[in-house]
Design brief:
This protein is α+β, with helices and mostly antiparallel strands. Helix content is about 20%, strand content about 35%. Strands 1, 3, 5, 6, 7 and 9 form a six-stranded antiparallel sheet that branches. The chain has a five-stranded mixed sheet with strand order 2-11-10-4-8, with helices on one face.
Length: about 230
């Protein structure tokens, strides 16, 4: 009887493993944070699988912008309800000053980064800022194409600022979203390094030591994201 019971447990484990393989658990395009324990997998809001990383210098209190991707691979529309910064390996976290969706974003183009929130188009002083719409309340349409093979995509931008001189990091955004009657939280992985230097210095750049630290943080975030 004991052997039969163990055999049944083994078959159940194999079935679960097969299901996990079928839905792609562990693949770079999925984040396990989107799955509610004890329920079927949530609609797959995805960060795109391409880890963004940027290093920018600014004065304390001056905002800079980083960005990433939002993809809806599921059959339902997803409603965005909120966002917060994700810490990066215990490093100091900057202050979130703004978050929005790039309204003229083109699939396949990198998210714009730069000084200011939103940043100036092309990074040119005096240029118009990139147009953004509010992230909260935004709706990601369901995936299109046969079998949902064409995910809908949006570029999300987020502005941060350093409260004091120092080096700050964020691993991206934790996105709260609703699918049907359920609410989930998933991560848009995008490593941002902000090197804040005292005012009066003409050029704001990250030092060699800060950039080396940034490489270490990037490697750690990449492991967390499965990138």
């Amino acid at each position: 009887m004991g052997r039969v019971f163990v055999g049944l447990l083994t078959l159940a484990a194999l079935a679960v493993a097969g299901l996990a393989a079928a839905v792609g658990v562990g693949h770079a395009y999925l984040d396990l944070g989107f799955t509610r324990v004890g329920t079927p997998p949530a609609p797959p809001l995805s960060w795109g699988g391409e880890l963004q990383d940027s290093s920018l210098g600014a004065s304390p209190g001056q905002s800079v912008t980083f960005g990433g991707y939002l993809l809806n691979r599921g059959p339902q529309p997803l409603v965005i309800e909120g966002a917060r910064l994700v810490p990066a390996g215990g490093q100091p976290l900057p202050k979130l000053v703004g978050v929005g969706i790039l309204t003229n974003g083109t699939p396949g183009t990198p998210p714009p980064t730069g000084l200011g929130w939103p940043p100036a188009e092309g990074g040119l002083a005096g240029a118009h800022p990139y147009p953004v719409s509010p992230l909260v309340g935004a709706v990601l349409p369901p995936a299109g194409g046969r079998g949902g093979r064409s995910p809908s995509m949006r570029i999300v931008l987020f502005g941060v600022a350093a409260p004091a001189p120092g080096t700050y990091f964020t691993a991206g955004l934790a996105i709260t979203y609703r699918a049907g009657r359920h609410t989930y939280v998933g991560t848009v992985w995008s490593v941002g390094e902000l090197c804040a230097q005292p005012g009066g210095q003409a050029v704001k750049v990250c030092s060699a030591a800060a950039l080396q630290l940034g490489d270490q943080v990037l490697q750690g975030v990449a492991r967390r994201a499965g990138a």
